[in-house]
Amino acid sequence: MKLSKLILGVATSLSLMTSSSVFSAVKVNDAAPDFSLPASDGKTYKLSDFKKKYVVLEWHNEKCPYVEKHYNSKNMQNLQKTFKEKGYTWFTIISSAPATATSPAKQGYMDSKAANEYIKKMGASPTAILFDSDGKVGKALYGAKTTPHMFLINPEGKLIYAGAIDDKKSTDEKDIPGAKNYLVAAATEAESGKPVSVPSTPAYGCGIKYKD
For strand 44-46 and strand 159-163, is the pairing parallel, antiparallel, or unpaired? Predict the structure, then answer.
């Protein structure tokens, strides 16, 4: 084998290893990776501060038609309210990249002022809107791919559901009443002490607008 081919092979292997590590993600039934992220309310939230509580992570892009489906219908807001009334923590996470010196902000990016105005306008009530501007939490830790992409963490700190919000892969609000809501089903089973029968599903929606 020529030296040039050997070097190319090594470089390719290293590239694949790096790519794999960048897109590595927690698996269902593993411990949910801890993180700290700034929020639109000016606070910083750390996942491990919410141990002994169920936690929902909802990846969000206000301009995604799949997200609009669940927000314009008030479905997501109703879920937030119901889950919070049961003592859950609900984090809405925005991983859309902010503007840089060479590129505009990615679709769905909001600063604190815009996020707070959005919450009020939509009647949303998450525990907090978190900003994952560099994508490290969404991409490297959780492997979040779409908006919405839902994750449910139990009081022991384990990820017990990851995937789509429901089984209707559409942007039509009329599909919501007849859909099976995977998040609700997982939470209901977990609360009753049963194993989650559908712990993961393929997420559907708009691709998250990470910085790279």
Answer: unpaired
Rounded to 5°, the CA angle 107-57-171 comes to 50
Domains of the chain by range and CATH? Answer: 25-207 (3.40.30.10)
Q: Is 80 exceeded by the pLDDT of residue 11?
A: no
**pLDDT at residue number 24:** 55
Q: What angle do CA 143, 144, 150 make, to 5 degrees?
A: 125
Q: How far is CA 197 from CA 76, 97, 191, 210, in A?
A: 22, 35, 13, 31
pLDDT of residue 25: 80
- In this structure, the chain runs to a length of 212
Quote the DSSP letter at residue 40.
T
Q: Taking Cα atoms as reference points, which of 155, 184, 182 lies closest to residue 54?
A: 155
Phi and psi at residue 173, in whole multiples of 5°? -60, -30
- In this predicted structure, the answer to whether residue 106 has a pLDDT above a threshold of 60 is yes
State yes or no: pLDDT of 96 exceeds 70: yes
